[in-house]
C-alpha cells in the first residue's frame, strides 16, 4: 500500500488511522451539514495506482455502499475514473468492518485521489477508511509551449526500419497539435497529430498514390484528449502491420503500398514540424502541452534532451517540468434543473462583458440569461440546432444574432461536436457584440445603453426566476474560464457557498463522456450521441435495430434469415416450382469443360468459387431440409477408378477440402457411380460406365446429396493422357430447399430435464427467438448464468412471458401479458433482444415491450455456465411442452440432435399444428382438435383454409368502404377489451396494415375518425410519397410523418404496417420509428373509411385534398386493430356496420401485383437462359427448334392438368369434411404424455376454416 496524506470536506478523528484492522479505531465521517462530502488523498508524488480498498468507520453504523473515484495531478482539475465498460460507480461496503477491494481495470498514474460517496447505510451515516495500492515509477517530462519542439537526429543520412516501437504520454488543453513527424525522400512519412481532440496517425511506406495525393487519410483513435489529463500512446509496427493504442483502445491496421520498411531522412521531430533552416517556424500547428516518458525504439528522447546530448536539438523553449495551466471546469448535469447564478462583478455604467468556454454533445441548451435595464429587456444566449443564437427581447420586438454552427466540419456527425468553444459577449457603446471561437463578430445596434440587472444565469434558471424559464432546455455540458466584466469567477467560492448560487453542478471536473467510443453500433453503422445517450444509423448496413444487430436480409422464401454476418451476395436466385422453393447458388464454371492430356502426375484441376462466402454456404446447407448438386461426367477412354486396385483416378473435394471419390447416388465411402445402384451400367463388371474404358462416349451422371460434403469446391481429373482419351464434365449449381430449423423441435416431459449448449455469446448484444406450446402453467424456456450476471426467458404464469437479465446493474425484468392463456397447446412465438441501448420482448402479435438501458450502467453480459434450454441448472421450474425453431443471434440450434441423447426429452413434437402444412398465416390461429385442426381467420385480413388468400377490392374515384364502429356500448366494450389485452401497459395503441396498387396521386388510402374530432389518415401526397397523419389533440396541429420520400404511385404492390404504443409510432416494413407529440388515445371511434371520404369537416387542408380525390386502384389485406373492413364488406354485404358507395369490385389484384413482381425478379434469368439456348443452337435446323417448342407446349398442358386435378381434390376434401369431436381433458401430466404418442397420419384428416 501507499502512504496517504488527507484533505477532507468533513472531519476525522485525530487519533484514528485511515485504514485499520478490527482492533483499531476511527475513520472519516463528514459533517451532517456538508451537502457534497468527499475524502481526498495526497500520495505526495506521482504514483501508479492499481487498486483501492474501503472499510466503514470503526465500530459504528457508518459506511459507504457505493462511491465515485476521481484523480488529479494537481488537486485542481479532476477526472472521474471509469471501468472498461464506462461505468464510474464503485461497489463499497455492506458493514463497517469488512474490507472491500476494487482492482482498477487499467492503472492510473496520479498524485491525488478523491472518494465521493454516492450511497451509504440508510440506518446510519457515511463512514470511510481507505487504502490505496500501487507503486512509484520514473518520470521524464518535457513541456512544449506551442512554439517549441525536439529534433532527434540520426547518426546517418537516413534511417530505414522494418520494426518500430514508439510510446509516450501527453496531456494538453488544446485540441490541435503535432506530436511527432518524420519523412524521407522516397516519400515515406509518419505523423502523429492531435486533431479535434482525437489522435490521427498518418503513415506511408513507399506508396506513390499516398505520396502525390492531396487528401491523406489518417487512422483515428481516441476522443476528448484535450482534457488536461494524461493519455498514453503506444505505436507498434512490424513490416506493414501496425497497432495504434491510445489509453485502452487499440486500432489494428495494415499500411498501403508496396514497402515493408519506414525510411526517414535525417531526423524525427517531436512537438511540431519545423521548416528547414527556420527554427521556431512550423508548417502545422504545433503541440502545446506536456509529454512524458517519450521512447523511440528504446531510446529515451526526453532524457537525452535533458542531458543535452548531441543527438537532440531543441527548437524554442522546451522545459523539463510540466507547468501547464490547470483550468478548473464545472459540469452541468441535468437537462432540466442545472444552473449557475453569478452576480455582476464591479458593474460599470458603460455596460457589461462576459467571456466563457463550454463543450457539449447536445444540439439544444440555454447558455446564458440576464435581465437588462431599462426593463423589461432580456438577453438570451442559447444553442439551437447546434447553432449559437443571441436574442435581445425588447417587449414585443426581438433582435436576433446567429453565431457559428457548432457541428460544421464535424467528422463524427453527432449532435454537437464535444469540443471546447469560446464565447465573448460585450454590451458597450450602444451595441451588443457576439464573438465565437475568435471568428468575425456579430453585432446588434442599440437605441440606448443597456446594463445588467440582477444575476447572470449560466446553463439554466432556478424555479424562482420565472422570467428565465421556458426558452430552451437547460444546458448539459461543461463550462470553464467564466469572466464577468474581465474578472475571473472563482468556482471554488461558488461551491463553498461564498459566491452566487447553483444547482445540479459538479465542480473541479468536466465529466463529459464519448458514448461512441468504442462504437457500440454493429456492422459498421454510424454512431451519433447526446450527453446521456447514443443512437445508431443502420443505413446501408443490411441490419436494423437499436444497435444494428438484426439482419434485414433473407436468403429466399425457404429461409428465415442468415447468420448474423454480412448478407448473402445477390447472385443467388430462388427457383419456384409447384411444390417447393429452391435456392440456387451458382459458381464460376457453369459451362461444360473439356479435358485432355491430364494424368495423376499432372492432373486437371478446377476450383469452384460460389456466389456466397464459405460461412454463408455452410449456413445455407446446414439449415436446409435437402441440398443437392448434379455431377455430369462424359468420357471416352477416361476412367474414374483404376480397374486393378480400385484407387481413384479422378475425385472431387468437399466444402472442407477433403478428398471424395464417390459419385452421385451413394453414401460417402462407397466408390461407385449411380449406374451401379440402378443396375444399368453398360458393363456390369464395373461399377461406373466410364470404367469400361471404351472408345465410344459413355456417361456417368449422378446427384450428390450428402449435405455435410456439399458444395463441391474442387474437381481433379487424372486419366485423359492416353491416345484418344477425352472427358467432358459439368458440375451443376448448389440447390437447396426448405428450412430445417423451422420444425427442429424438442419435447420436454420431465421438469428436471433440459438440453444444454455452449455458453451464450451475448456480451454486448443478443437476440433469441423460438416457438413454444404447452399446457403447463409455468416453466423456464432457457437460462444462462455467470458469476453474478444471468439471462433468462420463462413462462412465469399461464398468460405472462418474462424476459429477465442482469449485467451488473441489478435484475432487469420485462413481461408481456396476453389477454388469452398461453398454455393452450397452441404454438406461440417469443422474441427477446438485449443490446447496449435497450431490451425488448415480443409474444405473438402482441406489442413489443421495451426497457431502456441505464445511461451510465454496465453494458457487458458476462456469462460462464452452459446455456440450458427447457430448464435450469438447479433442475427446478423446468418447462413441460414443446420448443421449436430456437435461434440465437441468427444461429439455429439443433434441438432434435441434442434431444436424442438426453433423458426426459424427445426429438420432434406431436400435434396437428406442428407440421408446415398446418400453419395458419397472417395472424390466423391454428386450433388443435382431437382428429384434425382448423384455421381461425377471424382475426386476419386474409381468407382461405390457411388464411393466406388476399382479400382485394378494385376502387375507382367515387368508391369508398366505411366501417362504422358500434356505439356507444360497443365502443366502450372495445376500449375495455383493448385495455385488457395490455393490462400491464395502459398506453394507447393502434395497429394498421394494408397493401395497395395505384398510379394516382394524391390519393386517400385510409382514414379513422372519432366523435371527439380526432383522426388518423394515411394518404399519398402529390409527389406519390406516403404521409401518416395523427391528429390526437384537437387544439394543436397534427403530427405528420413521411416514412419514405419515394413515389409509391408506380403501379406496383406496396405494403404498409403501422404500430403505435403511446407516443411511439413504428412503420414496420420501412423500419422507421417516430415520436408523436401526444400519447392520447382515440376516444369514441366513429368510423374507418377506405377511398373517398364524404365527411371532411375536421380534416386539415392537405388531407381534404386527398380525401376528395378518392382512390383509384387496388386495396387488399386491410386491417385496423382486429377489424378487417374489406373482408367484412365482401362477406357481410347486408351488415349495418358497412356502408359501400360507388362501384366496388372484388378482384385478385393484390395477388396479381405480387406475381408480377415475382415475374420481374425471374425474367432476367429466364431471358438469359433463352439467349444462351439460342447461342448454342444457331447451327441446328428448324426441325429441332420446332421439336423444342412442341415439348414446351406439352409440358405446359400437363402442368395445367395437374393443377386442375389438385383443385378438384381440394374441393372434394372440403365437402367430405366430417364433424369434429371435442377431446376429453385429463390432468396436465397425463394429457401431455398422451399427446406425445399421437400418430402423425391422422393429420391428413379434416381441415376446417371460418372467416
Automatic annotation (TrEMBL):
UniProt xrefs under CDD domains: EGF, EGF_CA, FA58C, LamG
Keywords, sorted A to Z: Disulfide bond, EGF-like domain, Membrane, Repeat, Signal, Transmembrane, Transmembrane helix
- What residues does the Laminin G domain cover? 141-322, 329-510, 744-909, 968-1149
Where, subcellularly, is it found?
A: Membrane
Give the SMART domains listed for this entry.
EGF, FA58C, LamG
InterPro entries tied to this protein: ConA-like_dom_sf (IPR013320), EGF (IPR000742), FA58C (IPR000421), Galactose-bd-like_sf (IPR008979), Laminin_G (IPR001791), Neurexin-related_CASP (IPR050372)
Main subcellular location:
membrane
Per its UniProt record, what PROSITE patterns does this chain match? EGF_3, FA58C_1, FA58C_2, FA58C_3, LAM_G_DOMAIN
Could you tell me which residue ranges the F5/8 type C domain spans?
Answer: 1-135
Tell me which family the UniProt entry assigns to this protein: Belongs to the neurexin family.
Q: What is this protein called?
A: Contactin associated protein family member 5
Q: Which organism is it from?
A: Oreochromis niloticus
- List the lineage, top down: Eukaryota, Metazoa, Chordata, Craniata, Vertebrata
Amino acid at each position: 500500500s501507499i502512504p496517504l496524506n488527507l484533505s477532507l470536506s468533513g472531519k476525522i478523528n485525530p487519533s484514528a488511522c485511515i485504514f485499520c484492522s478490527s482492533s483499531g479505531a476511527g475513520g472519516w465521517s463528514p459533517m451532517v451539514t456538508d451537502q457534497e462530502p468527499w475524502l481526498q488523498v495526497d500520495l505526495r508524488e506521482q504514483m501508479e495506482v492499481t487498486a483501492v480498498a474501503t472499510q466503514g468507520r470503526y465500530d459504528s453504523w457508518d459506511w459507504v455502499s457505493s462511491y465515485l473515484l476521481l484523480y488529479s495531478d494537481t488537486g485542481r482539475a479532476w477526472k472521474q475514473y471509469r471501468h472498461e465498460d464506462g461505468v464510474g460507480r464503485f461497489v463499497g461496503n455492506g458493514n463497517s468492518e469488512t474490507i472491500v477491494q476494487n482492482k482498477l481495470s487499467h492503472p492510473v498514474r496520479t498524485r491525488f485521489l478523491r472518494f465521493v460517496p454516492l450511497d451509504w447505510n440508510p440506518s446510519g451515516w457515511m463512514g470511510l477508511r481507505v487504502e490505496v495500492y500501487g507503486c512509484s515509477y520514473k518520470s521524464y517530462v518535457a513541456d512544449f509551449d506551442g512554439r517549441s519542439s525536439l529534433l532527434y537526429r540520426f547518426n546517418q543520412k537516413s534511417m530505414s526500419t522494418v520494426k518500430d516501437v514508439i510510446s509516450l504520454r501527453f496531456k494538453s488543453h488544446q485540441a490541435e497539435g503535432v506530436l511527432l513527424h518524420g519523412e524521407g525522400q522516397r516519400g515515406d512519412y509518419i505523423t502523429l497529430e492531435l486533431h479535434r481532440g482525437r489522435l490521427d496517425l498518418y503513415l506511408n511506406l513507399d506508396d506513390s498514390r499516398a505520396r502525390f495525393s492531396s487528401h491523406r487519410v489518417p487512422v483515428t483513435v481516441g476522443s476528448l484528449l484535450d482534457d488536461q489529463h494524461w493519455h498514453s500512446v503506444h505505436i507498434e509496427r512490424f513490416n506493414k502491420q501496425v497497432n495504434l493504442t491510445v489509453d485502452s483502445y487499440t486500432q489494428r491496421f495494415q499500411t498501403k503500398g508496396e514497402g515493408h520498411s519506414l525510411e526517414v531522412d535525417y531526423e524525427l521531430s517531436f512537438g511540431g514540424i519545423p521548416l528547414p533552416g527556420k527554427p521556431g517556424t512550423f508548417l502545422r500547428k504545433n503541440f502545446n502541452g506536456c509529454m512524458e516518458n517519450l521512447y523511440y525504439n528504446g531510446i529515451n528522447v526526453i532524457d537525452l534532451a535533458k542531458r543535452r546530448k548531441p543527438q537532440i536539438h531543441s527548437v524554442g523553449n522546451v522545459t523539463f517540468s510540466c507547468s501547464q495551466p490547470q483550468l478548473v471546469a464545472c459540469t452541468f448535469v441535468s437537462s432540466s434543473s442545472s444552473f449557475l447564478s453569478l452576480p455582476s462583478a464591479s458593474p460599470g455604467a458603460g455596460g457589461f462583458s462576459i467571456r466563457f468556454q463550454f463543450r457539449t454533445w447536445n444540439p439544444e441548451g440555454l447558455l446564458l440569461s440576464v435581465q437588462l435595464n431599462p426593463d423589461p429587456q432580456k438577453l438570451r444566449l442559447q444553442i439551437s440546432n447546434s447553432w449559437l443564437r443571441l436574442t435581445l427581447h425588447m417587449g414585443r420586438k426581438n433582435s436576433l444574432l446567429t453565431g457559428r454552427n457548432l457541428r460544421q466540419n464535424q467528422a463524427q456527425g453527432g449532435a454537437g461536436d464535444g469540443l471546447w468553444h469560446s464565447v465573448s459577449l460585450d454590451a458597450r457603446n450602444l451595441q451588443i457584440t457576439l464573438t465565437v471561437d475568435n471568428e468575425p463578430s456579430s453585432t446588434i445596434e442599440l437605441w440606448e445603453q443597456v446594463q445588467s440587472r440582477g444575476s447572470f444565469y449560466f446553463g439554466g434558471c432556478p424555479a424562482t426566476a420565472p422570467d428565465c424559464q421556458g426558452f430552451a432546455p437547460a444546458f448539459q455540458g461543461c463550462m470553464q474560464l467564466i469572466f464577468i466584466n474581465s474578472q475571473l469567477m472563482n468556482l471554488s467560492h461558488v461551491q463553498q457557498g461564498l459566491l452566487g448560487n447553483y444547482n445540479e453542478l459538479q465542480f473541479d471536473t468536466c465529466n463529459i463522456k464519448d458514448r461512441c467510443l468504442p462504437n457500440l453500433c454493429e456492422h459498421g453503422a454510424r454512431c451519433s450521441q447526446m450527453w446521456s445517450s447514443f443512437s445508431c444509423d443502420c443505413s446501408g448496413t443490411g441490419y436494423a435495430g437499436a444497435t444494428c444487430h438484426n439482419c434485414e436480409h433473407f436468403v429466399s422464401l425457404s429461409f428465415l434469415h442468415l447468420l448474423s454476418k454480412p448478407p448473402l451476395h445477390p447472385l443467388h436466385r430462388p427457383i419456384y416450382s409447384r411444390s417447393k422453393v429452391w435456392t440456387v447458388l451458382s459458381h464460376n464454371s457453369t459451362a461444360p469443360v473439356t479435358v485432355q492430356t491430364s494424368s495423376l502426375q499432372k492432373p486437371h484441376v478446377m476450383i469452384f468459387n460460389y456466389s456466397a462466402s464459405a460461412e454463408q454456404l455452410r449456413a445455407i446447407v446446414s439449415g436446409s431440409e435437402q441440398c443437392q448438386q448434379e455431377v455430369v461426367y462424359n468420357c471416352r477412354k477416361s476412367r474414374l477408378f483404376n480397374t486393378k486396385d480400385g484407387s481413384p483416378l479422378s475425385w472431387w473435394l468437399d466444402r472442407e477440402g477433403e478428398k471424395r471419390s464417390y459419385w452421385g447416388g451413394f453414401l460417402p465411402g462407397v466408390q461407385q457411380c449411380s449406374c451401379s445402384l440402378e443396375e444399368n451400367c453398360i458393363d456390369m463388371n464395373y461399377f461406373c460406365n466410364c470404367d469400361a474404358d471404351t472408345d465410344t462416349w459413355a456417361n456417368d451422371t449422378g446427384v450428390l446429396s450428402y449435405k455435410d460434403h456439399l458444395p463441391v469446391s474442387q474437381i481433379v481429373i487424372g486419366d485423359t493422357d492416353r491416345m484418344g482419351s477425352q472427358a467432358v464434365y459439368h458440375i451443376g449449381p448448389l440447390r437447396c430447399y426448405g428450412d430445417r430449423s423451422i420444425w427442429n423441435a424438442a419435447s420436454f416431459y420431465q421438469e428436471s430435464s433440459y438440453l444444454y449448449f455452449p455458453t451464450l455469446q451475448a456480451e454486448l448484444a443478443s437476440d433469441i427467438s423460438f416457438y413454444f406450446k404447452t399446457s403447463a402453467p409455468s416453466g423456464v424456456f432457457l437460462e444462462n448464468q455467470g458469476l453474478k450476471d444471468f439471462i433468462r426467458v420463462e413462462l412465469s404464469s399461464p398468460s405472462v412471458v418474462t424476459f429477465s437479465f442482469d449485467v451488473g446493474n441489478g435484475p432487469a425484468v420485462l413481461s408481456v401479458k396476453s389477454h388469452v392463456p398461453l398454455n393452450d397447446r397452441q404454438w406461440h412465438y417469443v422474441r427477446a433482444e438485449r443490446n447496449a441501448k435497450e431490451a425488448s420482448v415480443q409474444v405473438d402479435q402482441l406489442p413489443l415491450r421495451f426497457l431502456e438501458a441505464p445511461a451510465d450502467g454496465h453494458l457487458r453480459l458476462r456469462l460462464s455456465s452452459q446455456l440450458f434450454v427447457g430448464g435450469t441448472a438447479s433442475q427446478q421450474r423446468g418447462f413441460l411442452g414443446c420448443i421449436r425453431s430456437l435461434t440465437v443471434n441468427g444461429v439455429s440450434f439443433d434441438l432434435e440432435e441434442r434431444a436424442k441423447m438426453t433423458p426426459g426429452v424427445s426429438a420432434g413434437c406431436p400435434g396437428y399444428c406442428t407440421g408446415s402444412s398446418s400453419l395458419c398465416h397472417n395472424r390466423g390461429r391454428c386450433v388443435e382438435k382431437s382428429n384434425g385442426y382448423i384455421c381461425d381467420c377471424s382475426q386476419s385480413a386474409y381468407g382461405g383454409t390457411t388464411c393466406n388468400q388476399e382479400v382485394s377490392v378494385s376502387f375507382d374515384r367515387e368508391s369508398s368502404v366505411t366501417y362504422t364502429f358500434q356505439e356507444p356500448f360497443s365502443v366502450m366494450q372495445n376500449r375495455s377489451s383493448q385495455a385488457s389485452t395490455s393490462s400491464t401497459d395502459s398506453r394507447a395503441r393502434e395497429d394498421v396494415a394494408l397493401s395497395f396498387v395505384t398510379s394516382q396521386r394524391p390519393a386517400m388510402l385510409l382514414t379513422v375518425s372519432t366523435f371527439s374530432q380526432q383522426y388518423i389518415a394515411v394518404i399519398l401526397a402529390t409527389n406519390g410519397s406516403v404521409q401518416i397523419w395523427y391528429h390526437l389533440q384537437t387544439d394543436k396541429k397534427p403530427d405528420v410523418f413521411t416514412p419514405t420520400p419515394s413515389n409509391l404511385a408506380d403501379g406496383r404492390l406496396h405494403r404498409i404496417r403501422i404500430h403505435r404504443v403511446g407516443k411511439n409510432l413504428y412503420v414496420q416494413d420501412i423500419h422507421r420509428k417516430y415520436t408523436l407529440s401526444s400519447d392520447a388515445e382515440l376516444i369514441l371511434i366513429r368510423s374507418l373509411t377506405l377511398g373517398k371520404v364524404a365527411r371532411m369537416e375536421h380534416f386539415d387542408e392537405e388531407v381534404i385534398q386527398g380525401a376528395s380525390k378518392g382512390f383509384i386502384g387496388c386495396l387488399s389485406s386491410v386491417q385496423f386493430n382486429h377489424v378487417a373492413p374489406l373482408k367484412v364488406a365482401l362477406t357481410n354485404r347486408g351488415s349495418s356496420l358497412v356502408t359501400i358507395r360507388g362501384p366496388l369490385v372484388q378482384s385478385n389484384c393484390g395477388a396479381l401485383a405480387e406475381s408480377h413482381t415475382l415475374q420481374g425478379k425471374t425474367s432476367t434469368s429466364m431471358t438469359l437462359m433463352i439467349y444462351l439456348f439460342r447461342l448454342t443452337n444457331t447451327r441446328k435446323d428448324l426441325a429441332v427448334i420446332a421439336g423444342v417448342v412442341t415439348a414446351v407446349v406439352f409440358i405446359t398442358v400437363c402442368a395445367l392438368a395437374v393443377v386442375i386435378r389438385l383443385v378438384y381434390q381440394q374441393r372434394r376434401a372440403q365437402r367430405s369434411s366430417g364433424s369434429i369431436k371435442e377431446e376429453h381433458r385429463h390432468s396436465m401430466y397425463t394429457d401431455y404424455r398422451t399427446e406425445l404418442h399421437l400418430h402423425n397420419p391422422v393429420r391428413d384428416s379434416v381441415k376446417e376454416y371460418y372467416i
